[in-house]
């Protein structure tokens, strides 16, 4: 009687462990799919792949401009902000080009180097842009990214999805997939050992 209870408890534990392993594998596959349709296209689409050194030539704040509508946004999301324009000397080619914060900045407003998020306090936006302009004037030389193919003459300060960020995004689903597979393998080994012991 006690032996039957132990066998039943063992089978229940193996079933739960097997479900846990399969669930971890399924979740990791969903995460892989989500990363593949969201982050990977943005990473492969970016042409600013080579890092170089940029030297600031001038950083000017122009008159206020309106943040253009992004796709699917409403009219109330348009707001005015000071337009910061940063021109740098590209060390790789010696050209004078315009600097943008990220790839998204160029798409949102190609006239400005920095596009702030919508803030109700316009003074805060102005102070932030002035701080950014002063930092560019203070730190004249810094790393930036350019397009080695020459399709884009502008440069960006940082990539939205760098190589390290992409690897980090794939790290967690990989660990979950490995852990799930390990659990399944251990359960199968346990079942095999149980059957072998029963035969003996």
TrEMBL record:
Would the keyword Zinc-finger be found if you checked this record's keyword annotation? no
Gene Ontology cellular component annotations, sorted alphabetically: voltage-gated potassium channel complex
A Pfam family reported for this protein in Swiss-Prot or TrEMBL: CaKB
GO-annotated molecular function = calcium-activated potassium channel activity; potassium channel regulator activity
PANTHER family assigned:
CALCIUM-ACTIVATED POTASSIUM CHANNEL SUBUNIT BETA, CALCIUM-ACTIVATED POTASSIUM CHANNEL SUBUNIT BETA-1
**Residue stretches spanning the membrane:** 20-43, 166-187
Tell me what topology the record assigns in the membrane.
Multi-pass membrane protein
Top-level taxonomic group: Eukaryota
Q: Where in the cell is it found?
A: Membrane
Alphabetic keyword roster: Glycoprotein, Ion channel, Ion transport, Membrane, Transmembrane, Transmembrane helix, Transport
Record's protein name: KCMB1 protein
User: Tell me, what is an example of a GO biological process annotation in this record?
Assistant: detection of calcium ion
Q: Which family does it belong to?
A: Belongs to the KCNMB (TC 8.A.14.1) family. KCNMB1 subfamily.
């Amino acid at each position: 009687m006690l032996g039957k209870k132990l066998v039943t408890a063992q089978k229940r534990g193996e079933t739960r462990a097997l479900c846990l392993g399969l669930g971890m594998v399924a979740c990791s596959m969903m995460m892989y799919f989500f990363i593949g349709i969201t982050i990977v296209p943005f990473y492969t689409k970016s042409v600013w792949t080579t890092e170089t050194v940029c030297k600031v030539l001038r950083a000017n704040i122009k008159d206020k401009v309106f943040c253009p509508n992004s796709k699917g946004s409403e009219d109330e999301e348009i707001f005015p902000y000071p337009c910061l324009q940063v021109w740098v000397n590209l060390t790789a080619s010696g050209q004078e080009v315009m600097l943008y914060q990220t790839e998204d900045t160029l798409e949102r407003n190609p006239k400005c180097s920095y596009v702030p998020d919508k803030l109700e306090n316009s003074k805060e936006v102005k102070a932030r842009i002035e701080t950014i302009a002063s930092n560019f004037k203070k730190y004249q030389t810094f790393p930036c990214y350019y397009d080695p193919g020459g399709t884009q003459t502008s440069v960006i300060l940082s990539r939205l999805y760098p190589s390290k960020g992409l690897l980090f995004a794939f790290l967690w689903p990989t660990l979950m997939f490995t852990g799930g597979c390990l659990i399944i393998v251990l359960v199968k080994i346990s079942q095999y050992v149980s059957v072998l012991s029963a035969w003996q």
